[in-house]
Amino acid sequence: MINHEIRTHKSAEDFPYEEHFAYKVAKVAADPVEVPADTVDMIINRIIDNASVAVASVPRRPVTSARVIAQAHPVTENGAKIFGVEGNYSAEWVAFANGTAVRELDYHDTFLAAEYSHPGDNIPPMIAVAQHKGLDGKTLIRGIATGYEIQVNLVKGICLHEWKIDHVAHLGPSVAAGIGTMLDLDIDTIYQAVGQALHTTTATRQSRKGLISSWKASAPAFAGKMAIESVDRAMRGEGAPAPIWEGEDGFIAWMLHSPEHTYTVPLPADGEEKRAILETYTKEHSAEYQAQAPIDLARRMKSTLEEKGLATEDIESIVLHTSHHTHYVIGTGANDPQKMDPTASRETLDHSIMYMFTVALQDGTWHHVDSYAPERAGRPDTVELWHKVSTVEDPEWTRRYHTHDPAEKAFGAKAVITFKDGTVVEDEMAVADAHPLGARPFAREQYINKFRTLAKGLVSEEEQERFLAAAQNLENLTDLNELNIVVTDEALAQAPETPEGIF
User: Fold this and answer.
1) Which of 269, 343, 292, 271 is nearest to 112 (CA)?
2) 445: Cβ contacts below 8 Å, ≥ 6 apart
3) Most buried residue, 161, 212, 324, 441, by most Cβ within 10 Å?
4) What is the pLDDT of residues 259-286, one digit of tens each?
5) What pTM does this model have?
6) Where are the beta strands (DSSP E) in 204-329?
7) Cα 319 from Cα 413, distance rounded (Å)
């Protein structure tokens, strides 16, 4: 890997085009290096993982809205496939619909470092373009490997949330780069597409603050759609603002730290294999990733309390000692009263560690629908206990969150439960059970089981088996339409009616 220093340059400075970070990203995307076998294997896992959560979200309102909009853009030749239904549609709108479906339940893969990310968001727009252009499985694999490589390394080097910029600002460039790889574009074209994608996908973090709406699911889908349009525009010979990261009035100077700050981002050297996807991890629970280990911890502590004959109604307080990120994003450090509101949206509840820890402690389980049901959130004993939970930042958990040592890197917490009689029960968990270093790491078997569990009652068994066979044969697949999944008519009938829009 090569560490690239990125800083603001005045317009009058001599700053050669080849030194622009967007050019270096484009070089990585254009590198014809072969994709290693373990990267290929994980790409297949993540395609299955994305399909799992996309199918489970098909009947939900935000996904239905996105699907209906995409269906208003049919094409007669080629085209891409919308999750759940038949037909051929315009690739950029398919990317928006499928990206929303993948993201809606907050249930697919994650990578956390200086910034947050869900690198699986790269997959829907790339599949859409690959289907639209008639590409094969090997070509799709190359594109996805690039997308993960660029996004993961941007996440390692550039913190966005510190400056209240949403994490999809790293996604637009990574999708554009991955599409550039798939289409075998030259460095100059990819350079322009990456710049345009960053310029058009930068937004604030208000989409994940306060009254969190359905835009949380659509934000990465929109970034994927804009990346497709950026590549299309660049292929027609049109340019983008430049230098996009380092310009005097650019991204670093005015949206991030300051014109004086230097960021360091690693990228593969020429000929170096793309392996970043192997550093990422998926979710066993439908919840924000920083809640994965605390949910597992709560499930374990429920057993401990039962063994000790202790009842949750006798709890005086629960304090979760955790990292800066967890405390300030999904904990009480966010100072969001909505995170303690039993009438809050699902999107808000899955960003409230206080709520999620409470329900997991009471139920000993977590379900992507039942655990968020309004009647579950409004249960009086749950609301009472929920309001006794708080978080505090612990420097050691923050250090472990940011460490580059994979053996130490952790996104967990220590829970201190104090009872009214003074009894204290403590336990801690560093990584979720499904994490590569956890109690039950996810492998192909677990990805397939997750798919079958979420597809049950929505997709026929025959269709499930057809899709799984196609996905696992990705390297030899010549028709990428086989990666689409059609749900049953009964499942589609569960989707709500949507009001009429423009399209």
Assistant:
1) 292
2) none
3) 212
4) 999 999 999 999 999 999 999 999 999 8
5) 0.90
6) 262-267, 315-322
7) 10
